[in-house]
Amino acid sequence: MDSPFFDVAYRVVAIMVSFACGRQVWYGFVERKITPWRHLLDIYKLVFHRDTEPVRYWVEMGTQTIGMVTCFIAAIIGWWQPST
To answer: Which residue has the higher pLDDT, 6 or 13?
Structure first.
């Protein structure tokens, strides 16, 4: 598991997910509506509007913001495992 390819792939995927979540959060602030990050798995595409569903809107904004920050930190740290 010490392959440099695995570490690079991990970082690239983390950057892509961080960028996608950040873009969703940005568009959520601008358009005042947001779709869940798991909308590809849902049968119906859900859209949470800030004015009509404020709790769901802010929960989804918080979830995607945490995902963005976590993936950004993961991209910086990489697949680091302490040696024993």
So the answer is: 13
